[in-house]
From TrEMBL:
<keyword id="KW-0560">Oxidoreductase</keyword>
<comment type="subunit">
    <text>Heterodimer of the IorA and IorB subunits.</text>
</comment>
<keyword id="KW-0249">Electron transport</keyword>
<dbReference type="GO" id="GO:0051539">
    <property type="term" value="F:4 iron, 4 sulfur cluster binding"/>
</dbReference>
<dbReference type="Pfam" id="PF01855">
    <property type="entry name" value="POR_N"/>
</dbReference>
<dbReference type="GO" id="GO:0046872">
    <property type="term" value="F:metal ion binding"/>
</dbReference>
<dbReference type="InterPro" id="IPR017896">
    <property type="entry name" value="4Fe4S_Fe-S-bd"/>
</dbReference>
<dbReference type="GO" id="GO:0030976">
    <property type="term" value="F:thiamine pyrophosphate binding"/>
</dbReference>
<feature type="binding site">
    <location>
        <position position="535"/>
    </location>
    <ligand>
        <name>[4Fe-4S] cluster 1</name>
    </ligand>
</feature>
<feature type="domain" description="4Fe-4S ferredoxin-type">
    <location>
        <begin position="548"/>
        <end position="577"/>
    </location>
</feature>
<feature type="binding site">
    <location>
        <position position="529"/>
    </location>
    <ligand>
        <name>[4Fe-4S] cluster 1</name>
    </ligand>
</feature>
<feature type="binding site">
    <location>
        <position position="557"/>
    </location>
    <ligand>
        <name>[4Fe-4S] cluster 2</name>
    </ligand>
</feature>
<feature type="binding site">
    <location>
        <position position="563"/>
    </location>
    <ligand>
        <name>[4Fe-4S] cluster 2</name>
    </ligand>
</feature>
<comment type="function">
    <text>Catalyzes the ferredoxin-dependent oxidative decarboxylation of arylpyruvates.</text>
</comment>
<dbReference type="InterPro" id="IPR045025">
    <property type="entry name" value="HACL1-like"/>
</dbReference>
<feature type="binding site">
    <location>
        <position position="532"/>
    </location>
    <ligand>
        <name>[4Fe-4S] cluster 1</name>
    </ligand>
</feature>
<dbReference type="InterPro" id="IPR011766">
    <property type="entry name" value="TPP_enzyme_TPP-bd"/>
</dbReference>
Length: 578
């Protein structure tokens, strides 16, 4: 059956059709939908793991048991999973093991735009890179074949545009391969130095064998063109831009496997054109390989290593007039991202800003606490860094009476727990705040170990944050409601004055959760509003100033009442629950 699918959905379908049995991932845009989609198939066990390292190790365990397994993550998640990744290259697999990593060129939802192809080369693992949804499905199935044929995990590299665009896919039937029995094999799977020494030559020989496979693989295809004055080497979404801009004018070598790379195929292609040009996003990865094997090539001299490419950015350097498109006469005002109306984090960040504290932040939708008018975050590095960072900040002489760290509930479970253990173990007088909105918010409301539900929505063990914090040695643990500004301010002031570590849990469910029952929208009494704009200090998108008076957008307001607490003139009127 033919149907339109997102690239991520197509990958999930490919996993299903290939007989994948176990899936363990951590949500991260733009990879999340792969795991969400595959979880809909009852034949596949699927879960959210606390972090990417755990997910990859879980997938390894399933592979070791003889089942086909999968884990997915975004590019920065692969950093977290790098420890098992490099050693998995040495152990190889039993059942096929596929690892999807989704890069975010343009940083639509990321703190950097690293190029994951370098991981494939560094870890000596094959990497496939689909250019549309149909290839997403096909490559997922091929990845399992390669994994078991060459005894290796296989990386499947997605990017934002391929992951989140739709194209036509033809689906097939699920074929479950024969289960491979687990056979005890210490020299292969116990990576102590003596065994690892003997596995390294196996990895090098495997890479040579995969290079030979890449020479004739159908997924590395040459598309001929009449004009041999230029040949294009490309892959992924860059291939789509090239075809849209150039059509079939020039020969194109479209790579489906971006590591390891062929040698003779590239040399033969280059010999048949006057000039070889590499079109690729981010780093000059393919370009560097071409130079390494002695080819003259142009690439990053024409195309930037920063941000995404586009049709226009590809057209001009290749001598084609870019499509100017339609120019708007009116200037479009900027629309910076903001926390949602009723976001439980808003009151807490307002309080932190009011107290003029140094705030070490973390990764999540609460990172928007850095945006004016809240402007309450001083740093954001990576998942879990806030708790580790405040410890170092205080040990280096930072003022414990004026410094806090914030982290979300999902991020705390991901990698904040070990930072809290370090605070307790090495006795920092740190005040840290867990922003518990009862969900993984930034990536679209996935469950996590603190919510009491698993990936499929079934009830499961719920981690109690208060008990967990106390169990690692934190004696001062308290819970506040972030809608109550006075309660937040009192708690934070008191904990900052303590001479030992303390945890404040700011607990209120995300306003967008379906089960959350909101109050009626607030209204403004114009006779009482003096236009002081105090209500604007919380940066709520439901509040605006029109003709010198505050106004509330009833389609956005959830009646949380935070703005009421800022109005000295009782101009904002609350109502009962809907």
């Amino acid at each position: 059956m033919k149907m339109l699918m997102l690239g991520n959905e197509a990958v999930a379908r490919g996993l299903y059709e290939a007989g994948c049995a176990v899936v363990s991932s951590y949500p991260g845009t733009p990879s999340t939908e792969i795991t969400e989609a595959v979880a809909k198939f009852p034949e596949v066990y699927a879960e959210w793991a606390p972090n990417e390292k755990v997910a990859m190790e879980t997938a390894f365990g399933a592979s070791l048991a003889g089942k086909r397994a999968f884990c997915g993550m975004k590019h920065v998640g692969l950093n977290v999973a790098a420890d098992p990744l490099f050693t998995l290259s040495y152990t190889g697999v039993n059942g096929g093991l596929v690892i999807a990593v989704a890069d975010d060129a343009g940083m639509h939802s990321s703190q950097n735009e690293q190029d994951s192809r370098h991981y494939a080369r560094a870890a000596k693992l094959p990497m496939l890179e689909p250019a549309d949804s149909a290839e997403g499905l096909a490559f997922a199935k091929l990845a399992y074949e390669l994994s078991e044929q060459f005894d290796t995990p296989v990386l499947l590299k997605m990017c934002t545009r391929i992951a989140h665009s739709q194209s036509v896919v033809e689906t097939g039937q699920r074929i479950t391969p024969p289960e491979k029995p687990y056979v005890k094999n210490g020299p292969k799977y116990i990576m102590m130095p003596g065994n690892a020494k003997r596995r390294h030559p196996v990895v090098e020989e495997r890479t040579r064998a995969l290079m030979d496979w890449a020479e004739t693989a159908d997924i590395n295809r040459i598309e001929d063109g009449p004009d041999k004055s230029m040949g294009i080497l490309t892959s992924s979404t860059s291939y789509q831009y090239v075809k849209e801009v150039l059509g079939d004018t020039y020969p194109v070598l479209k790579l489906g496997m971006v590591w390891p790379l062929p040698v003779e195929k590239l040399r033969s292609f280059a010999a048949g054109v006057d000039k070889l040009v590499v079109v690729e996003e981010l780093d000059g990865f393919l370009e560097a390989w071409c130079r390494e094997i002695g080819l003259e090539v142009e690439g990053k001299s024409l195309f930037s290593a920063i941000d995404e490419l586009s049709q226009n950015l590809v057209a001009a350097p290749l001598g084609k007039a870019p499509d100017a498109g339609v120019k708007l006469d009116a200037a479009i005002p900027p629309r910076p991202p903001v926390m949602c109306a009723g976001c439980p984090h808003r009151g807490l960040f307002y309080t932190l800003n009011k107290l003029k504290l140094t705030v070490l932040g973390d990764i999540g939708c609460y990172t928007l606490g850095a945006v004016p008018p809240l402007a309450a975050i001083d740093s954001t590095l990576c998942m879990g860094a806030s708790f580790s960072g405040i410890h170092g900040f205080l040990k280096a002489g930072g003022d414990p009476k004026k410094t806090v760290a914030v982290i979300g509930d999902s991020t705390f479970m991901h990698s904040g727990m070990t930072g809290l253990v370090n605070i307790a173990y090495n006795e920092s007088p740190a005040t840290v705040i867990i922003l518990d909105n009862s969900i993984t918010g930034m990536t679209g409301h996935q469950q996590n170990p603190t919510t009491g539900f698993n990936l499929k929505g079934d009830p499961c063990t719920k981690i109690d944050l208060e008990t967990l914090c106390r169990s690692v040695g934190i004696r001062r643990v308290r819970v506040v409601d972030p809608y109550n500004l006075k309660e937040c301010e009192t708690a934070i002031k008191e904990e900052l004055e303590a001479d030992e570590a303390s945890v404040v849990i700011s607990r209120r469910p995300c306003a967008l959760l379906k089960y959350v029952k909101h109050k009626k929208p607030l209204t403004v009494d114009p006779s009482k509003c003096v236009g002081c704009k105090s209500c604007m200090k919380i940066g709520c998108p439901a509040i605006a100033i029109v003709d010198g008076k505050a106004t509330v957008d009833a389609t956005l307001c959830v009646g949380c009442g935070v703005c009421q607490q800022l109005c000295k003139f009782d101009a904002l009127q609350g109502h009962e629950e809907v």
